[in-house]
Amino acid sequence: MEPTLDGAAALARNAHGPLAPHLPALISSLIEQNYSVVCLRAKAWRAVGFDDWLARHGVELTDVDDELIDLFHRRKYLPHP
Asked: Which of 19, 44, 48, 60 has the fewest Cβ atoms within 10 Å of its own Cβ atom?
């Protein structure tokens, strides 16, 4: 199956975490910047993955910082409060 712009947009629409309201704008911005479909789809997957990770860990958008982003990149789990 070939990656498509519609597929990237669908990923953003199906997100459910704290980034979800912002993901369609991200996809639109990437399209406007003429990213290739393959690159755009990869960025959409990464953004939706981060959104899901934030949701699973109960992180609010206002709490996202460089340390949390680093933990996500290393797939570290947050301690329970």
From this structure: 60
| Residue 58 structure tokens | 């109960």
For residue 42, how far is the Cα from the chain centroid? 10
DSSP-derived secondary structure for 1-65 = ----HHHHHHHHHT--STTGGGHHHHHHHHHHTT--HHHHHHHHHHHHHHHHHHHHTT--GGG--
pTM of model > 0.85: no
3-state secondary structure 33-51: CCCCHHHHHHHHHHHHHHH
